[in-house]
Amino acid sequence: FAMELGVVGAWAKFAGGLKAETLLAAVRGARPGCAGEDQPHAPTAAGVLEIGTYCGNSALRLATALPGVRITSLELDPVMVAIARGLIAFAGLAEHVDVWTGHSRLLLPRLSRTQSRFSAIFMDRWGSQYDEDLDLIQRHRLLHDRGGVLVADNVL
């Protein structure tokens, strides 16, 4: 499907093809699931955060490529949350992927209270709103200081 879209010049709203490969390569470089050098005895639950679930394609790719690593994904649209959760459950990955419903402005501060830092964060929503998300990520220290990777889509 994504290959056909590329051939006709259409735009896909999800990370597929080369974009997905690039995302996975970047996230693998963050050593997801590792406690990190700054916390050598911390639990290996660093995980990956995705801001902008859409239909769950990236979360599925991340969970498949990083077995045992917890994926947390945030989505504003409750209809897309239901679709993503259904696809994730159908793929048998519901134990590895959490999809939260709500605006990142409200959910990022909550995450800081329930989750330690993430080894990687994938920002995949409106690029014009990334500055707000980045400010919250930094303020709540959601990304590992050493080796943490931040990937932002839709920036050009």
Given as residue ranges, the uncertain stretches (5+ residues, pLDDT < 50) are: 35-44
Oligomer: single chain
What is the 3D form? Answer: globular
SSE series = HHEHEHEHEHE
Q: Going across the biggest sheet, name each strand in turn.
A: 3-2-1-4-5
Describe the SSE topology.
Elements (H helix, E strand, L loop, with lengths): L1 H7 L8 H12 L19 E4 L5 H9 L5 E5 L2 H13 L6 E5 L2 H11 L5 E4 L6 H10 L9 E4 L4
Parallel strand pairs: 1-2, 1-4, 2-3, 4-5
Helix pairs in contact: 5-6
Name the features:
156 residues; alpha/beta; globular; 40% helix
Structure, explained:
There is one protein chain. With 156 residues, the chain is of the alpha/beta class. Helix content is 40%, strand content 14%. It has a five-stranded parallel beta sheet with strand order 3-2-1-4-5, with helices on one face. β1, α3 (57-65) and β2 form a beta-alpha-beta unit. α5 (104-114) runs parallel beside α6. The two termini are 24 Å apart. Mean pLDDT is 82; it is low at 35-44.
Concise overview:
The protein is of the alpha/beta class. 40% of the residues lie in helices and 14% in strands.
